[in-house]
Each structure stands twice: as C-alpha cells, then as structure tokens.
Amino acid sequence: MSTTSFLDAARARLGGAPREALGELIEPRRVLGFARAARIVRRGSAWHLGVLLLTDDAVLATGDVVRARQEARRGYTAESQRQRAALAAAARRGGFDEGETVHIGWRMLDPTAVDRAEASGPLALVGGVPSVRWSAAGGYMPLAAYLDERVALLLAPPAGS
Fold this sequence. Notes:
By secondary structure, this protein is an alpha+beta fold. The chain has one domain. Helix content is 28%, strand content 29%. It is built from 4 helices and 10 strands; from the N terminus they run αβββββαββαβββα. The chain has a 7-stranded mixed β-sheet with strand order 5-6-1-2-3-4-7. Strands 8-9-10 form a 3-stranded antiparallel β-sheet. It comes from Microbacterium salsuginis.
C-alpha cells in the first residue's frame, strides 16, 4: 500500500474523533514605531497522531503545542517559560478559547515523495515500507502500525488521560 492509502484509511477510522486547532504566529508590523502584540490565528484543525497532524487533505509534522490562556504577569525562572507564556497569550489574543490546544510551527509533508523513496519530515520509505520516525532519537516504525496505535489511542484514550 502507498503512504497516501495508509493516511486515507486512518482518516476514515477517525471520523468523529476530536481534533485540535492549527495556528500560525503573526508578528504585526510596527505602527508609528510601536510594536503591537503578536497573535496566533486559526489555520484549521487536525487529528493529533503523535509526530503527525492529519487533516482532511494533508499530513503535517508537529511543531510546538500550546494551550491558549489569558496573559498575566508572572515571575519566570527560565526564559523558555516566558516564551511559552507569550505564545499562550498570543493564541488567546488570536481568538482561541481559554485552555484550547493550538499547534504552531507545523510543516506540510509530502506523502507522495515518500512513495518515491524520498524522505519528507518524519516520513520515509524504509526497506520498501512507508515508515515514520516517532522521535528525533528513535528509529523508524512502519506507518501502518504507528497509525493503528495512534488512532486507537485517540478513539479510546487510557483512563485518567
């Protein structure tokens, strides 16, 4: 089977499963020399399947994930915490509901390139089998098995998750 057919089969199984928002960070132009606050605008929704985001007609590699929340003054011990809080506030300014999960920094993947033996993000053809690298340090796993596992988790999450 081709990479596209595996992805189409996963879409068919997902049907009414919950989706998460896709967003794009917009840095506005300065007005009269003053910077305006960045915001994250909605760019659709996708099923979150580990390192992949599956939309109705595309497959994406995940980027950063934030939960939208109101901006608040806080003391942070790490600059990374401050940056994540700024992204969460930008999502809220962009119109996302409080606590809504938003994916930003995602990249479009090309499943047909995988079938031509070219890698596309975490997708690659390994030994003639469409496969996915499930972590930066991890090895490749057959795409069919990966999708089966991730779709099952999304349709029936473990208790307490």
